[in-house]
């Protein structure tokens, strides 16, 4: 048994291990190659987050999905590079919107070079992803465009908030399906499709990615409150400080409105105050870390991960299927 990829995924087959390791190494080289520019400063900015590391969660799913066809088919690695470049581009933009100072344990691009450079670097990465996509054919371009539209729509819906009468939790889960689920779904779809897997397998791995992506983001919501910066690679409580209504906070608000407990109402009042104050921010974090709303968010994470696992049932048994199932456990473990 060998540990590879994000989360310390254990692979129990030498052939699968070799395919995954080879594929991820090729993706890493492809990311660096795709972000080179004739302008040295652009190269530095574009490779800033690549060199900071990262889990390469989406490329790993591409590699595992490709096991249901030919994992060495020519489109597999480039499609993994596309999804990771797209993800990286959104991180540059997210950090500007969130005014984040840390990403992956290093200064965020906006903290280091300013918002304008960070936004334009994200745009540069989108452009390079599109260039690679053009060589993968019109169907790949269409799939990526649809996913990107869903991603942006999810971000806009998050910013706009739920319409009147809409359950904020339901609204938020729709947001996550677009913001995160869409690109992870494409990872499963590209891996299977580029490897020449059967259409039914492509559909299964697309659905798997959608649900796993949502679980992954819910785990991030829990980590934003429960972890320290060493564990998560970013400043704890960033979403809280920016007023982003993550799932633990939404559960808290619902419980406070439903039950009216004084301690819950007091915590909601703290949340609604000025969280740029470090002492107030620390107090909110401390209280949320022991509040039942955080455990409820963990249970939601488990539910989506189990739904992802259930979609895999029709696939033939084997090491690749087992690895995809283990990813569901690994995502849940992050929120543990």
If you had to describe this structure to a student in words, what would you say it looks like?
The structure is a single chain. The strands form 2 sheets. Strands 1-2 form a two-stranded antiparallel ribbon. The protein has a two-stranded antiparallel sheet with strand order 3-4. It starts with a strand and ends with a helix. The chain has a single domain, classed as Farnesyl Diphosphate Synthase (Orthogonal Bundle), CATH 1.10.600.10. The relative contact order is 0.11. Helix 16 packs antiparallel against helix 17. The chain is 73% helix and 3% strand. The chain has 17 helices and 4 strands. The protein is mainly alpha-helical and 336 residues long. The protein is globular, with a radius of gyration of 20 Å. A hairpin with a 2-residue loop joins strand 3 and strand 4. The model has no long low-confidence stretch (mean pLDDT 90).
